[in-house]
Design goal:
The chain is α+β, with helices and mostly antiparallel strands. It has four helices and eleven strands, in the order αββββαββββαβββα. The chain has a single domain, classed as Alpha-Beta Complex (Nucleoside Triphosphate Pyrophosphohydrolase), CATH 3.90.79.10. It starts with a helix and ends with a helix.
Length: 193
């Protein structure tokens, strides 16, 4: 068995967590954000589309991330994820098949990220909004899921010890909320072997 769309659909629907709250209410000190985890069928099996944030951004400059951002007033998280993906990388909502929500991911900077897993039909050309996105790349799941690429360190923050995941992929270091979301997805759906 390999990393195929059928495998992903079977594993995600079988392992989907009933505890995911789609109408999550962030606390008064949190900002709600939504991200899209776009997966496509590529030359190397299933590939995840990741972006590199622009270096001048206030939050997480230069880090590897998913397309996404803050929710606008009255906006549902899945709407925000789709809107941000279209604005940041030119992925039209018609090219996206949402599979469902993943568990929320709080950050140390006061955000609660609401991730959405999706299968996509990539556009003929990615249209990056360079004010926010410096680069875009496709990362094969079979590479991202290799155990040798993962590390976990404990980080002291505001009197608490927090686990921080790090994923080494090619020349990229993926860490923070992006790595935490990927780690939880990896644990949730497993591998085809």
């Amino acid at each position: 068995m390999n990393y195929s769309i059928d495998w992903l659909l079977t594993r995600y629907s079988f392992q989907a967590s009933p505890k995911v709250q789609q109408n999550f209410i962030a606390g008064p000190n949190h900002h709600r954000a939504a991200v899209l985890l776009p997966i496509l069928s590529g030359a190397n099996g299933l590939e995840l589309v990741l972006t590199q944030r622009a270096a001048h951004l206030r939050h997480h400059p230069g880090q590897i991330s998913f397309p996404g951002g803050r929710l606008e007033p009255g906006e549902l998280s899945q709407q925000a994820a789709l809107r941000e993906a279209e604005e940041e990388i030119g992925l039209a909502p018609a090219q996206v098949q949402l599979l469902g929500a993943l568990p929320h991911q709080p950050t140390s900077t006061g955000f609660v990220i609401e991730p959405w897993l999706a299968l996509i039909e990539p556009p003929k050309e990615w249209l990056l909004q360079h004010d926010e996105v410096a680069d875009l790349f496709h990362a094969p799941l079979k590479e991202l899921w290799e155990e040798r690429r993962w590390q976990q360190w404990n980080w002291q923050h505001k009197g608490k010890q927090l686990p921080v995941h790090f994923l080494h992929w090619r020349q990229q270091l993926i860490w923070g909320a992006t790595a935490a979301i990927l780690y939880r997805l990896k644990q949730q759906i497993g591998t085809p072997f």
